[in-house]
Design brief:
231 residues; mainly alpha; 3 helical TM bundles of succinate and fumarate reductases; 10 helices
Length: 231
Amino acid sequence: MGKNAVAVLTQSTVGQKVVMATTGLIMVGWLALHMFGNLLVFVGKHEFDAYAEWIQSGFGASPEFLWLMRVFMLAAIALHIRAAVALTARNRAARPNRYAGGHQLRRTTYAARFMLLGGLVLLAFLAFHLAHLTLGVLHEPLHGQAFVRGQAYDNLMVGLSNPVVAAFYIVANLALGAHLWHGVTSGLQTLGVNHPRYDGLKAAAGIAVPGLIVGGNILIALGVLLGVAAA
């Protein structure tokens, strides 16, 4: 397939949907791995710090591999946003007139109609999360304590012991759940899982995946806030 054919495919509505579905599922996989790793906070400080060090070491390979993964994930996020914006613009252009009753009602769920807005909220939360618990630049302004490199467990304990910050993480994860609820099912359908026999599987995945990821993240925030995480 030539370059022009690839460009036409990726810029078409179907191509943009495939890009958004593929990059979305990549991010779902990363979110799940990240959540499972963070559950080590309930095992102990040594185990959690060892997990954080393993990530910083490039998953046991090399620090350069970690940067490669970061670039890969940033590219996936950028492509996901680009596809979402393009599809939203095309949908609006295809429906220039309001429906009867003066409302732009569509045959979609509440989550689907607000996917773009929810995505922007999650993007803002991602920036906050990286600044808060990865780079640590918000640690001292928010908590009055310095961010200590290599002390991931202690940084997390301080970071989520603040009720306002913990509540923000919980609300952001609920927004993530709404995003994933629609995104997982529509992504699977876009990638070919669209036979009626798989409808039950898609519906189950649309509930189980966000439930697992969001439930795990909220459990971590509550565990730290309530002081039940392992020492």
